[in-house]
């Protein structure tokens, strides 16, 4: 290895290993966007799914969906066979025309989330409201029947 590396003072060129170019090229290859593309796409996909909080309260479940910039008309909420599905789809088309140019912008965003609800909910009483970028769903629970307790005597 000593033959491959110049030592300081032995020559006029700075100290450099034969392998330094190899590792520099490898580092440069991983800095390329091609290798970062899957991570970049995953990051974008994660951003398109809104944050959802589910709280289990005494008499209801509270589901909160953070979806700023949407309108309540953009949401679709369905309940089928114990599965609650919250979806949203929004399309925007902006165009602007001036004397010497024309600009058109398109924006499309959508998401869909489904939740299997427990058996102790009343699907007919679910209420939803959209306010300040938060979609809130109140999912009431049914009154659980208290099963009678009985002490059994041992003979």
Describe this structure in words.
The chain is of the alpha+beta class and 155 residues long. The protein folds into two domains: 1-7 and 16-48, no CATH class; 50-140, Immunoglobulin-like, CATH 2.60.40. The chain has helices at 18-31, 33-48; strands spanning 52-56, 60-66, 75-80, 83-97, 102-116, 127-131, 134-140. Strands 1-2-7-6 form a four-stranded antiparallel β-sheet, with no helix packed on it. A three-stranded antiparallel β-sheet has the order 3-4-5, with no helix packed on it.
Task: Give a brief outline of the structure.
This protein has 155 residues and is of the alpha+beta class. It has helices at residues 18-31, 33-48, and strands at 52-56, 60-66, 75-80, 83-97, 102-116, 127-131, 134-140. The chain is built from two helices and seven strands.
Strand content: 35-45%
Would you give the CATH topology of the largest domain? Immunoglobulin-like
SS-based structural class? alpha+beta
Question: Per CATH, which architecture of the largest domain?
Answer: Sandwich
- Number of self-contained structural domains: 2
- Give the SSE string: HHEEEEEEE
What is the level 1 CATH name of the largest domain? Answer: Mainly Beta
Helix content: 10-25%
Mean pLDDT: 77
- Distance from N terminus to C terminus (CA atoms, Å) equals 90 Å
Strand order of the largest sheet: 1-2-7-6
Task: Show unreliable segments.
Answer: 41-46
Please tell me how large the radius of gyration is.
30 Å
Tally of extended strands? 7
Shape: elongated
Count of separate DSSP helical elements: 2
The biggest sheet, with number of strands, parallel, antiparallel or mixed sense and barrel status, is:
4 strands, antiparallel
